[in-house]
Write a structure and sequence with these properties.
Elements: H1 13-24, H2 29-37, H3 43-50, E1 64-72, E2 75-82, H4 86-100, E3 106-109, E4 114-121, H5 126-143, H6 145-153, E5 157-165, E6 173-181, H7 188-208, E7 220-226, E8 234-242, H8 254-270, H9 272-292, H10 297-308, E9 318-323, E10 326-334, H11 348-356, H12 362-385, H13 389-404, H14 409-418, H15 426-437
Antiparallel strand pairs: 1-2, 3-8, 4-6, 4-7, 5-6, 8-10, 9-10
Helix pairs in contact: 4-12, 5-7, 8-9, 9-10, 9-12, 12-13
Length: 438
């Protein structure tokens, strides 16, 4: 049985590893060796990574890739992508090259508002609470002036504070529903600091408010926290071209291709089982850019999937249509991203990613990231309605299978050549490796 440990966080990194090896890996020295191999030889750089989080014992590598040829609003981009699935980068690059000669991607930031809430309990008369809120609202805003000063200089700050009555859902439950503009920062720390100050000011003022009975003065703050649901932080990306400029195959004319593509998207709009996988493919592209630029992909995922369910049914984030012999394909998606603060000024590869993207502001990064999702979705649907998803995916997966079996360089060359004209399956790769080695 693994023993309970006290003071683990105070141990040195080496001692943490020794403890793990002793209690979880039977003192296997290869475990220690693997963890230490992933340390950076540059001590200062390694210390930087160690201090990103708690109890760091090593680094976990993910491939840092680039997808070229993205034409976005008539400007050329090479997009950084951090993801372990090679077919994602390949599909995005292929889609980018396809649309580059057809006008490229068009984008528009619709809004950039973010939300935070103070959740509290009040058991008194609602009209009294509303009168109290109206009275102290200016005081709430002035109480955070020391926090908003610099943000306001950049064009951001607190946009609005509303009192919301949620007692039909939970007895005595109310909110301060607050909206913010955080400009180029993702803004989580800024929003949370403002919310906690609002809560403190509200409870302090309530104790002194003469309009409350004594028992009404004890407002209980449950929590003060930003929301990762940001339906008013929206960006749209789209592509369009004449139907005759779409792919044609021996089995599908350009017109048939367009119609089949639209039907595929329509299925994702009405069928949640398909929509989840459809949107997961979109997030393959989006998460890869979010990670590469040092943003919080967990927050983005949560907000995006909530947005896909906003009308009571989970549905597609992309939409397609044919109109006047023209094919249209678009995405509208909430993306609360930042280009200042957090890892953006610390992680060397994040800084490199932003340089690669020409030092975008938050709005520009929203546009680029949405495009990556749209491109990824186009590539996936293109495969699904033509060759099927596995042909391209398994060819990209071939190298992983070969590495699993420790294929030599000579074996890799022979097998890559073989699978240029043969279908890649795990069993067939194994059979061919065994045939070579026999």
């Amino acid at each position: 049985m693994t023993p309970v440990v006290s003071g683990f966080s105070k141990l040195s990194k080496t001692d943490k590893i020794k403890w793990l090896a002793e209690h979880h890996f039977n003192n296997d020295q290869s475990t220690i060796s693997i963890l230490m191999k992933y340390w950076n030889a540059d001590d200062a750089l390694q210390q930087l990574h160690d201090e990103f989080t708690e109890n760091t014992i090593s680094n976990y590598y993910l491939p840092f890739s680039v997808a070229p040829n993205f034409l976005i609003n008539n400007e050329q981009y090479t997009v950084p992508m951090t993801i372990e699935e090679s077919s994602v980068v390949a599909a995005a690059s292929k889609a980018a090259k396809f649309w580059q000669t057809r006008g490229g991607f068009k984008t528009e930031v619709i809004s950039t508002t973010k939300v935070g809430q103070v959740h509290f309990m009040y058991s008194g008369n609602y009209k009294k609470l509303q009168q109290f809120f109206d009275l102290i609202k200016p005081e709430l805003l002035s109480s955070v002036s020391h926090l908003t000063k610099n943000m306001e200089k950049r064009g951001g700050g607190v946009l609005e504070i509303e009192l919301r009555n949620k007692t039909t859902e939970i007895d005595s439950y109310y909110q301060l529903h607050c909206t913010f503009e955080t400009v180029d920062a993702m803004g989580a720390n800024f929003i949370n600091s403002c919310l906690e100050q609002f809560a403190k000011t509200m409870t302090t003022e309530a104790k002194e408010y003469s309009g409350f009975f004594d028992d009404e003065k004890n407002i209980e703050v449950v929590m003060s926290i930003l929301s990762n649901y940001v339906p008013q932080c929206l960006v749209k990306a789209s592509v369009s071209c004449a139907i005759q400029d779409l792919p044609a195959t021996p089995l599908l004319s350009s017109q048939q291709y367009a119609e089949k593509f639209v039907r595929a998207v329509r299925i994702a709009e009405v069928e949640p089982y398909r929509a989840v996988t459809h949107n997961k493919g979109i997030m393959n592209g989006i998460d890869a850019v979010v990670l590469a630029t040092g943003n919080d992909f967990r927050a983005i995922e949560a907000g995006v999937h909530a947005y896909a369910s906003r009308n009571g049914k989970y549905t597609s984030l992309t939409h397609a249509q044919i109109k006047d012999d023209t094919f249209f394909f678009s995405i509208e998606i909430p993306l609360a991203l930042g280009t200042v603060g957090g890892l953006t000024s610390l992680h060397p590869l994040v800084k490199l990613s932003l340089q690669l993207l020409k030092m975008p502001n938050a709005k520009k990064l929203m546009e680029i990231t949405a495009v990556a999702g749209l491109a990824q979705n186009f590539g996936a649907i293109n495969s699904l309605i033509t060759t099927g998803i596995q042909q391209g995916h398994m060819k990209m997966h071939l190298m992983n299978i070969l590495n699993q079996f420790r294929a030599t360089e000579t074996e890799k060359k022979q097998l890559i050549k073989y699978f240029k004209t043969n279908t890649v399956t795990h069993s067939e790769v194994v059979a061919q490796i065994e045939k070579l080695r026999a």
